[in-house]
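INFO  loader      accepted 1 record
INFO  loader      residues=607
INFO  predictor   begin
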Amino acid sequence: MYSQDLIESVLRHSDIVHVASSYIPVEKKGRNYVALCPFHDDKNPSMQISSEKQIFKCFVCGTGGNAIGFVEKYEKIPFASAVKKVAELSGYSDPRLVEDTPKVSVDPEMAKLHSCINDLQTYYQYALTIPEGKAAREYLKSRDLGDDVIKKYGIGYAPMDGKKTIEFLLAKGHSLKNIEDIGIALARGVGTNDHNAGRITFPLFDPRGQVVGFSARRIVNDDSSKYVNSLECRLFHKGNVLYNYHNVVTSAHRDGYCYVLEGFMDVMALDKAGIPNAVALMGTALTKEHIGLLKRLRCEIRLCLDGDAAGQSNMMKACAPLTKSGLKFRLVDYGNDTRDPDDILRQEGPEAVRAKMNNLVEPVDFQLGYYLHNRKLETAEERQKVLSAFLPYLREKPAGIEFEDMLVKISDATGYQAEAIRELLRQSPKEDEAPEGILLATPKLDPTQGQGFARVLTRLETAERTMIQYMLQSREAIDYFEKNVGSFTSKEVFSTIAEFLIEFAASHDGDPELSQLLAYIGGSGLDETGTVEQTVSEMALAEGLPPVGEKSLGDCAKIIAQETRTLNDKLAAKRAISQGSLDSGALANKELAAKIRNRWAKKPKKG
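INFO  predictor   done
INFO  writer      dumping tokens
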């Protein structure tokens, strides 16, 4: 673990607004910033980011923390890795970030699988160069894939005799179980065999560049599948992998875009045409995991699946989850040209590919075009559903050519007369929303949503909460608490926060720096760290607190003392009632007994 001094130094040189905006869009609202929370399915900006306090907090799901915590949670990486990432995003360097790098614990079983599949990748690449690999080399040459492309993408060849592959891996010291566990082995009557045998291999990588599987293409046209993928295993899950992702992690954010394509050849075609930022789905639908990976690129996503009916249908289906995720995206408009990028490259050259890829349309325009050209609406229910989806967009258009053009297109797509739609706009409420199945509309930003969840607090809890808020602001309040209050009663988390504040103040001068305090809490190893961090973030961003001073602190202390005594009296009364001591006259002090009875007179005993 990095030293607390280094962690605080990284935080001092970082800005949480800059760090968060490297991952998600943020918008300034008053003194703070707001954003759609990336940690739950957020439709309104329920996350607040404070530049002044250097913390963030979601007022719906409760997630909060400092810049390091944001990166740790967003990228799902260890704390130490998040420290380095924040330093990198902030342009801050310190030799200790290299010298004191904590050793990452490695799962020994995963290490064995990685070693096995890395040896297999080396074997496949070598096999492409031997005489048997001639047919594979000729196929690659026919697709205009030269040595530079082959090397960059790690293309190889699996020899026809699949048992030889298994024998090679066994000779390298890998167990048969590990060979089976990397997803390429098939058990047959004659022994274990490589199911990629006789095919060109395309290695599949995780975001860090580690091989996790293969997709293997047949060389000859026969009855077998054109592509076979590694079997689902501990290393490889098809729905989690985007082809070429590891090569675009840095460049996509730098250049501001990334294309999402159908297959490997399309990725390579764009690369040869001077468009290196492209990934491929490998024949699967867009999954939640894919969207999570695309979010990490922090750039515009440009969707370009096949131009046939199936590809356009998949483009249409992808619009809803992409819109829901908050990702900025556009789609490639095929027009009447349904060729894929690889075909265009071979037939017309790089400029034609670039022209096609730059023919981008907004999601609403693509979806409207889809209903105009690709899928005719057949039932009244379908027409009404699609019309309801497009009305919010039409309503936002100012009167003019664009409005009239969209009106005519919606009329053509749905079959409703343009004047009838115009009249519907005048009559229908503005709160109409697109049906979930279509989900055309980008969620509107409303920072007030999600903040009405706080329950009514008791007088004691309110006073203790206020005291902590003062302590988060002021060293004076921490000292006052130690001398005049000492402990909290209403919630255990309040006491934990107070203990952290006292410990933190003992090693830091001046008022608490909230981002550094959160780092101190995060490094404590406490099991309830997440709850404590969230509570601190929520309290720190609360508004309307009177200025801290001797009177305000004294008022809090007075209420805490009064309500704590009252609470103790109630607890004593409940114990006495449960033991029957009030009925038997066992309490010696009759005045106290009467007082307790009066207090509980309106609260009959539950039974």
